[in-house]
Design a protein that fits this description.
It contains three helices and eight strands. By secondary structure, it is an alpha+beta fold. The chain has two domains: 11-95, no CATH class; 101-181, OB fold (Dihydrolipoamide Acetyltransferase, E2P) (Beta Barrel). The relative contact order is 0.11.
Length: 182
């Protein structure tokens, strides 16, 4: 959850520092055979150490192209991460089809008028308990308390509560899971 709240790093042509490392000047790179941004940086370092960046013509040629490359690299990296996440989720959902009858312990990670979002830590699986499946009472959302509260019996489901759930539906196309509290 912490990583989700942090801003995604982007490639840029502007000089920046690295807060966590406490460095005023910072360049990120790994192996140039793995990632295109690293190859670009290695090429720039090579030109710098050879003294070729002092040439106005060479510097102008790089200046003209590098902003576009940085933007393109950020876009394609995000696209690759999104694709990886989708494949992992699809594989997880296919695996979970075999565990549909299993009672699992989860944590309420979100609450809306229409239900509870629950995460199964054991599998890092997120799903929804639809409010219509909570048949023991009529539940209303209390936004201040981040809770669903039963109007007759007073049963409360709050953010962070541990609940036992079973899978009722897996939609592979939408990559969604529905749970029911047991």
């Amino acid at each position: 959850m912490l990583l989700r709240s942090m801003r995604k790093a982007e490639y840029s042509t502007t000089q920046s520092s690295h807060f966590a490392l406490g460095l005023e000047h910072y360049a990120h790179f790994t192996s140039p055979i793995r990632r295109y941004p690293d190859l670009i940086l290695h090429r720039l370092l090579d030109l710098f150490f050879k003294g070729e960046l002092k040439s106005g013509r060479v510097k102008a040629a790089w200046d003209e192209k590098i902003t576009g490359w940085a933007k393109h690299c950020s876009t394609t990296e995000k696209r690759a991460e999104d694709a990886e996440r989708e494949i992992i989720k699809l594989k997880l959902l296919r695996h979970m089809e075999e565990h549909a009858d299993k009672v699992m312990e989860g944590v309420i990670t979100g609450i809306q008028e229409y239900g509870l979002f629950v995460q199964i830590d054991e599998f890092q699986l997120d799903g929804l308990v639809h409010i219509r499946t909570l048949t023991d009472d009529f539940y209303e959302l209390d936004k201040k308390k981040l809770s669903l509260i039963g109007t007759r019996r007073g049963k409360v489901y709050s953010f962070g509560d541990v609940v036992n759930v079973k899978i009722t539906k897996i939609d592979l196309l939408k990559r969604e899971v529905d749970f029911v509290i047991v």
